[in-house]
Design brief:
207 residues; mainly alpha; single chain
Protein backbone atom coordinates (compact mmCIF):
# COMPACT_ATOMS: atom_id res chain seq x y z
CA UNK A 1 0.00 0.00 0.00
CA UNK A 2 1.31 3.51 0.73
CA UNK A 3 4.22 1.80 2.53
CA UNK A 4 5.57 1.21 -0.97
CA UNK A 5 6.78 4.81 -0.91
CA UNK A 6 8.55 4.39 2.43
CA UNK A 7 10.21 1.18 1.27
CA UNK A 8 11.40 2.99 -1.86
CA UNK A 9 13.29 5.76 -0.03
CA UNK A 10 16.65 3.89 -0.16
CA UNK A 11 16.15 3.43 -3.92
CA UNK A 12 15.37 7.15 -4.28
CA UNK A 13 18.62 8.07 -2.54
CA UNK A 14 20.63 5.57 -4.60
CA UNK A 15 19.21 6.90 -7.87
CA UNK A 16 19.94 10.47 -6.78
CA UNK A 17 23.55 9.48 -6.11
CA UNK A 18 23.79 7.83 -9.55
CA UNK A 19 22.31 10.89 -11.24
CA UNK A 20 24.76 13.12 -9.37
CA UNK A 21 27.62 11.04 -10.79
CA UNK A 22 26.06 11.36 -14.26
CA UNK A 23 25.70 15.15 -13.88
CA UNK A 24 29.39 15.51 -13.04
CA UNK A 25 30.23 13.82 -16.36
CA UNK A 26 27.82 16.07 -18.26
CA UNK A 27 28.70 19.70 -17.46
CA UNK A 28 25.87 21.03 -19.64
CA UNK A 29 23.30 19.40 -17.36
CA UNK A 30 21.63 21.45 -14.64
CA UNK A 31 23.25 19.33 -11.96
CA UNK A 32 22.96 19.62 -8.21
CA UNK A 33 23.49 22.30 -5.58
CA UNK A 34 23.85 21.26 -1.94
CA UNK A 35 21.42 23.68 -0.31
CA UNK A 36 18.83 23.19 -3.04
CA UNK A 37 18.99 19.41 -2.69
CA UNK A 38 18.83 19.66 1.11
CA UNK A 39 15.72 21.82 0.81
CA UNK A 40 14.08 19.30 -1.52
CA UNK A 41 14.82 16.37 0.79
CA UNK A 42 13.58 18.28 3.84
CA UNK A 43 10.31 19.20 2.15
CA UNK A 44 9.89 15.62 0.99
CA UNK A 45 10.29 14.33 4.53
CA UNK A 46 7.82 16.89 5.90
CA UNK A 47 5.33 15.91 3.20
CA UNK A 48 5.63 12.21 4.11
CA UNK A 49 4.95 12.94 7.79
CA UNK A 50 1.92 15.14 7.11
CA UNK A 51 0.60 12.71 4.49
CA UNK A 52 0.67 9.92 7.05
CA UNK A 53 -1.39 12.08 9.40
CA UNK A 54 -3.97 13.09 6.80
CA UNK A 55 -4.38 9.47 5.68
CA UNK A 56 -5.78 8.74 9.15
CA UNK A 57 -8.71 10.97 8.24
CA UNK A 58 -8.87 10.19 4.52
CA UNK A 59 -9.13 6.40 4.79
CA UNK A 60 -12.22 6.46 7.05
CA UNK A 61 -13.84 8.97 4.66
CA UNK A 62 -13.14 6.70 1.69
CA UNK A 63 -14.45 3.71 3.64
CA UNK A 64 -17.65 5.61 4.43
CA UNK A 65 -18.12 6.64 0.78
CA UNK A 66 -17.42 3.06 -0.32
CA UNK A 67 -20.68 2.02 1.38
CA UNK A 68 -22.52 4.06 -1.26
CA UNK A 69 -20.56 2.75 -4.26
CA UNK A 70 -22.36 2.72 -7.56
CA UNK A 71 -20.95 -0.64 -8.63
CA UNK A 72 -18.88 -3.48 -7.23
CA UNK A 73 -15.58 -3.59 -9.09
CA UNK A 74 -15.08 -7.23 -10.11
CA UNK A 75 -11.78 -7.83 -8.36
CA UNK A 76 -11.79 -11.35 -9.77
CA UNK A 77 -10.69 -9.76 -13.04
CA UNK A 78 -7.27 -9.38 -11.43
CA UNK A 79 -4.95 -7.25 -13.56
CA UNK A 80 -7.87 -5.76 -15.49
CA UNK A 81 -9.40 -4.25 -12.35
CA UNK A 82 -6.00 -2.77 -11.44
CA UNK A 83 -5.58 -1.44 -14.97
CA UNK A 84 -8.94 0.33 -14.82
CA UNK A 85 -8.05 1.73 -11.40
CA UNK A 86 -4.67 3.06 -12.58
CA UNK A 87 -6.38 4.94 -15.41
CA UNK A 88 -9.11 6.25 -13.09
CA UNK A 89 -6.55 7.24 -10.45
CA UNK A 90 -4.48 9.05 -13.06
CA UNK A 91 -7.56 10.99 -14.15
CA UNK A 92 -8.08 12.09 -10.53
CA UNK A 93 -4.41 13.06 -10.37
CA UNK A 94 -4.74 15.00 -13.63
CA UNK A 95 -7.52 17.19 -12.22
CA UNK A 96 -5.71 17.59 -8.91
CA UNK A 97 -2.56 18.67 -10.73
CA UNK A 98 -4.33 20.91 -13.24
CA UNK A 99 -6.36 22.62 -10.51
CA UNK A 100 -3.18 23.26 -8.53
CA UNK A 101 -1.79 25.08 -11.57
CA UNK A 102 -4.91 27.05 -12.52
CA UNK A 103 -6.54 27.97 -9.18
CA UNK A 104 -4.46 30.64 -7.50
CA UNK A 105 -4.84 29.53 -3.90
CA UNK A 106 -3.92 25.96 -4.90
CA UNK A 107 -1.00 27.21 -6.99
CA UNK A 108 0.26 28.97 -3.87
CA UNK A 109 0.51 25.49 -2.32
CA UNK A 110 1.91 23.68 -5.37
CA UNK A 111 4.44 26.29 -6.54
CA UNK A 112 6.93 24.96 -3.99
CA UNK A 113 7.44 21.93 -6.24
CA UNK A 114 8.42 24.26 -9.08
CA UNK A 115 10.62 26.54 -6.97
CA UNK A 116 13.97 24.86 -7.61
CA UNK A 117 16.33 26.30 -10.22
CA UNK A 118 17.53 22.75 -10.81
CA UNK A 119 15.81 19.83 -12.53
CA UNK A 120 16.97 16.55 -11.08
CA UNK A 121 15.67 13.57 -9.15
CA UNK A 122 15.86 15.42 -5.84
CA UNK A 123 13.30 17.86 -7.25
CA UNK A 124 10.83 14.96 -7.39
CA UNK A 125 10.99 14.88 -3.58
CA UNK A 126 10.39 18.66 -3.26
CA UNK A 127 6.77 18.10 -2.30
CA UNK A 128 4.62 20.90 -0.85
CA UNK A 129 3.93 20.51 2.85
CA UNK A 130 0.28 21.58 2.49
CA UNK A 131 -0.62 19.32 -0.45
CA UNK A 132 -1.81 16.51 1.88
CA UNK A 133 -4.54 18.95 2.98
CA UNK A 134 -5.61 20.11 -0.49
CA UNK A 135 -5.27 16.87 -2.45
CA UNK A 136 -7.53 14.15 -0.91
CA UNK A 137 -10.77 15.66 -2.23
CA UNK A 138 -9.82 14.94 -5.83
CA UNK A 139 -9.82 11.18 -5.21
CA UNK A 140 -13.30 11.01 -3.62
CA UNK A 141 -14.95 9.65 -6.80
CA UNK A 142 -12.91 6.43 -6.66
CA UNK A 143 -14.60 4.79 -3.63
CA UNK A 144 -17.96 5.85 -5.03
CA UNK A 145 -17.06 4.06 -8.27
CA UNK A 146 -16.47 0.86 -6.29
CA UNK A 147 -12.73 0.81 -5.59
CA UNK A 148 -11.83 -0.23 -2.01
CA UNK A 149 -9.63 2.20 -0.04
CA UNK A 150 -6.72 -0.27 0.07
CA UNK A 151 -6.65 -0.42 -3.74
CA UNK A 152 -6.81 3.36 -4.02
CA UNK A 153 -3.88 3.80 -1.65
CA UNK A 154 -1.84 1.29 -3.62
CA UNK A 155 -2.64 2.97 -6.94
CA UNK A 156 -1.64 6.35 -5.50
CA UNK A 157 1.66 4.89 -4.34
CA UNK A 158 2.33 3.36 -7.76
CA UNK A 159 1.65 6.72 -9.41
CA UNK A 160 3.94 8.55 -7.00
CA UNK A 161 6.73 6.04 -7.54
CA UNK A 162 6.33 6.27 -11.30
CA UNK A 163 6.59 10.06 -11.24
CA UNK A 164 9.94 10.03 -9.43
CA UNK A 165 11.96 9.12 -12.53
CA UNK A 166 10.30 11.86 -14.59
CA UNK A 167 12.43 14.52 -12.90
CA UNK A 168 15.70 14.05 -14.74
CA UNK A 169 17.64 15.31 -17.72
CA UNK A 170 19.56 12.03 -17.99
CA UNK A 171 16.79 10.27 -19.95
CA UNK A 172 16.25 11.42 -23.57
CA UNK A 173 13.03 11.23 -25.57
CA UNK A 174 11.60 7.70 -25.67
CA UNK A 175 9.87 7.56 -29.03
CA UNK A 176 6.53 5.78 -29.29
CA UNK A 177 6.29 5.29 -25.50
CA UNK A 178 5.60 9.00 -25.27
CA UNK A 179 2.36 8.56 -27.19
CA UNK A 180 0.86 6.88 -24.12
CA UNK A 181 3.03 7.47 -21.06
CA UNK A 182 4.29 10.52 -19.24
CA UNK A 183 8.08 10.59 -19.65
CA UNK A 184 11.00 12.74 -18.49
CA UNK A 185 10.81 14.60 -21.80
CA UNK A 186 7.13 15.42 -21.26
CA UNK A 187 7.73 16.43 -17.68
CA UNK A 188 10.66 18.67 -18.55
CA UNK A 189 8.15 20.62 -20.64
CA UNK A 190 5.81 20.75 -17.63
CA UNK A 191 8.56 22.30 -15.52
CA UNK A 192 9.60 24.73 -18.28
CA UNK A 193 9.36 28.49 -17.78
CA UNK A 194 8.90 29.56 -21.40
CA UNK A 195 5.37 30.98 -21.89
CA UNK A 196 4.46 28.48 -24.64
CA UNK A 197 5.21 25.58 -22.29
CA UNK A 198 3.38 26.74 -19.17
CA UNK A 199 0.60 24.63 -17.66
CA UNK A 200 1.00 21.58 -19.90
CA UNK A 201 1.24 17.83 -19.29
CA UNK A 202 -0.62 17.49 -15.99
CA UNK A 203 -0.91 13.69 -16.05
CA UNK A 204 0.93 11.39 -13.69
CA UNK A 205 1.50 8.06 -15.44
CA UNK A 206 -0.29 8.73 -18.74
CA UNK A 207 0.16 11.61 -21.12
Amino acid sequence: MSNLVLYSIPAFLLLIALELAWARRHPTAVGYELRDTAASLTMGLANVVLSAATKLATIPLWAWLYQFRLIDVPLALGPWSWGVLLVAEDLCYYWFHRAHHEVRVLWAVHVVHHSSRHYNLSTALRQPVLTPLTAPWFWLPLPLLGFPPAMILTAQAVSLLYQFWLHTEAVPKLGALEWVFNTPSHHRVHHGKDPQYLDRNHGGIFI
